[in-house]
Each structure stands twice: as structure tokens, then as C-alpha cells.
Amino acid sequence: MSEYFDIAITPTVIDLQRRKGPRALPADHTGEGPREPHVLDDSEILMITTRDSFYLASVSETGWPYVQHRGGESGFIKVLDEHTIGWTERNGNRQYLGTGNITANGRVAAILVDYPTRTRLKLYGTATHHPDPSPELLAQLEGESSRNDGAIIVEVLATNWNCPKYITPRFTEEQIRQDTRHLEERIVELETELAAAISR
After folding, report:
1. Which of 4, 27, 50, 168 could form a disulfide with 158 if both were Cys (CB 3.0 to 4.6 A apart)?
2. Between the CA of residue 197 and those of 7, 183, 191, 192, 200, what are the distances in Å?
């Protein structure tokens, strides 16, 4: 968590927290960021590699933030090593706003949410866009050369597990099907028993 605050906490933030109350964070955070990449632990890797979507923020050359949704099948984000993640870019609306920001700047932030468990992981990183990923990189990302618009690789600099407050639990259709399968099976059993009783 200290790595994350080394990026997020600046003197202005510290000053505001002090004026708002006693929950101010330590003042030894400079906002300059960590010196070394963050080493992903098992819980972070599990969270990252089981997402089917997340939110990615980048910064334009004029200093404006841009936030976009990234999605795919569960597990489309790959962990390439202990501090590097990546994914293949899908063909979208071809505006290339985030891709342009990453090409010019590279600083990104992301929020990954597991809605059923109300779990949220935030990260900072330095991203690189690969417009023509090599076959080796595509193999690592399990992407298809005919169905991608390049690849994004992120060196993770810091992470932070965020509080679950105000995260509304949401479930995919598949999760609901799994949770209600036993009910559907029981309904079939009861309908079969009822039909047999009526036919007697």
C-alpha cells in the first residue's frame, strides 16, 4: 500500500487531509512514485487473471485524464511476469484515445472490481502499446493475430486493495445459472414426480 500512496499522495493532498480531520496519511509521501516495480502476490494475480472487464485511465498530452472500459472473456488479462501484465487490444471504435495517450505518456491507472464479492483492486503502472505484437508476445497473451488491434503491456508500479463500501454486488448470467442450477434440477424432479402422480 505504501507504494501506491508514494504515487497518489502529494503535499496538496496531505494538506487537505490535515484540514479535514485526523485521518491524514503520513506526510513522508512525495508523489514521486516507487523506485522499483511492484511484485504481484498470489491474491493480486488471481484478481487480475479472473476479470472479464476493468477500467483503465490514461493521461493525454494536454494533461486531461481519459477513462475507458476494457473487456473480454474471463482471464483476458495475462500476467507475464511478477510485475508485468498485458492484453490484446480488440478492434473497437477506432478512436485510439487511450492508445494515443499511452503512446505519448504511458502513465496509467486501473480499477478492477469483483462485484459479487465487492472486492476492488487499484493499480498504477507504465503502459506500452505494441501496434504489431510479435508472434511470441501474442502467444503469451493468447491473442489471435487476425482479431487484435495491437497489445498493451503494463509494468505495475503499485497496487492497493480498496474498501468495499458502496460497491453494489452484481452477477453475470453464468454466475446466476451456476447458483440456481440446483433449483432448476429440483424443479425438473418435482415436475416429473407430479406428472407421474397425475398419470396414475
Report:
1. 4
2. 69, 21, 10, 9, 5
